[in-house]
Amino acid sequence: MGQPQTDETCQCVVCGREAVFHFDPTIITPQLKEAWGISDRLAEAFNRKESMFCSNCGCSLRIRRLAAVLMQTFSEISGLSCKSFAELLENKEFRDLKIAEINACGALHSYLKDHPNLHYSEWLPHTEPGEVYAGVRCEDLQCLTYSNNFFDIILTSETLEHVPDPGKAWQEIFRTLKDGGYHIFTIPVLPSQPTTVKRANLVDGKRDNLLAAAYHGAWGSENMFVYTDFGMEQKSAGLGVWRRLRESIIGAHRGFGSGSRYR
Predict the structure, then answer these.
(1) Contact (Cβ atoms closer than 8 angstroms) between residue 129 and residue 169
(2) Residue 29 domain-assigned?
(3) Is residue 223 a contact partner of residue 193, using CB atoms and an 8 Å limit?
(4) What's the pLDDT at 244?
(5) Three-state DSSP class for 54?
(6) How many domains does the chain have?
(7) Less packed terminus of the chain by CB within 10 Å, N or C?
(8) What are 131-176's pLDDT values in tens digits?
(9) Is a pLDDT exceeding 70 seen at residue 247?
(10) CA–CA gap between residue 33 and residue 11 (Å, rounded)
(11) Is residue 13 a part of any domain in this protein?
(12) How far is CA 227 from CA 179, 198, 220, in A?
């Protein structure tokens, strides 16, 4: 095993400021490491992706990569480039886009919430999709309440693995995107697993476990339950862009490894 991960100093692509990125070695729990059957080295890599928190804005490495792809996608659409997401957020053309943030994208949400055309939602137990509870709209990715061809961009980050039927979620994302719209997303992909594996199904409202229960985060917390372990056939290294073009989806996957300039 190589040298242990340490903090780093670099400019943050979200806030645009020089920052220290803090490594947390405890995010992947021992139970999840066992459920995944991964090595210490791979667990450390996942810990790095889920931490390296910016000392200014709090964004993790995963969220900074998501923001970087969002910035790159907008640059390809508009021909304009920005040095940080904070700068992008001031752009009028970007602010005119209809954006769905389905489940908060980590600390990036504190920036996204200032976007005038943001449609933010969470899955809330005991709340019907489309209803608002405590100021937050409830949405189920498997049956979104938005109309067809509604969004320019849909953002999801580490969400699809918690959805009982990801296929239905993909269909709903496709339905609610405008022609030419983008789904920018992250999913956890296990490099040691060639193909995607279902851990459980939801049958008549009851969970049917196919494998031992696994959770991302607090072990035993139902909103952290994992229905799907995505495998390497996804080919996106866990970070991707899908574009809706008429009756098809074009997958323009962009994976960024540890050497990425997107920090």
Answers:
(1) no
(2) yes
(3) no
(4) 57
(5) strand
(6) 1
(7) N
(8) 999 999 999 999 999 999 999 999 999 999 999 999 999 999 999 9
(9) no
(10) 31
(11) yes
(12) 30, 6, 13
